[in-house]
Model the fold of this input.
Amino acid sequence: MKPILSLSICILACAAATRTQAADDLTVVSNVTTNGKPAGSETMYISSDHIRTSQTGGTDMIINLKTGVMTTVDEKKKTYYEVTKQDLQAMQAKMAEKMNDPKVKQAMAMMQGMTNSMAVSTEVKKTGVSRKVAGFACEEWSISMGAMMTVTECVTNDIKYPVQSWAGLADFKESMRKSMSGSGFGPSAKASADYAEKMKSIKGFPVASSSTVDAGVMKMTNSSEVTEVRHTAIPESTWEAPAGFAKVENPMMKAFEEHGR
Done:
């Protein structure tokens, strides 16, 4: 999942508790730019129990908030795979087994150190800038994660969205965090929870986002800006992989199995 998308979802999930009004299905279309060049459009479909993100010529992600199943659709390869709660539990068990390997322990320690450092150094604050995007008044927020990553989100309270879907997403993310807490990812899971707590100060729907990731040898910028908002019923077929697409094995599970041989 791209940094902008994950941040947007986190902002909306954190804001859900502060919104009480119901809303119809929501479709949001945005223009996307990567490293200063147009990268097509991205569409987010939101209903009370499903969320789907779709980018031109890329990979779609569908989250069923009722079952906790995540479906990833590859438009180019015409394939899809699912990640279930049982898959996550199985990966947790396999990771616990691998934690006896000194090399794995060392790699996990490095990863946890980076995650914890980013969470501790994260700062969330208003920039004082207000503007309009697609006709919606929004306020800018700055999210900095040390020197490695900076993000700007412009959020509005003028767009109604299905609050229950974001409440469900928050519950789903919490269940994932708990599932990781006993598999060697404990500190990272805690760092993720601390990060989410800081993000709760941002309330509203993000209509413009930009991020810069600077890893020293590589620097990447991404941005998105809403161009269209529709409050119309979303067809049920949106929550399924297209007809004719082949279901393939979850690559994460496959990787665990291959490394375990």
Remarks:
- The chain has one domain: 3-259.
- Residues 102-121 form the longest helix (20 residues).
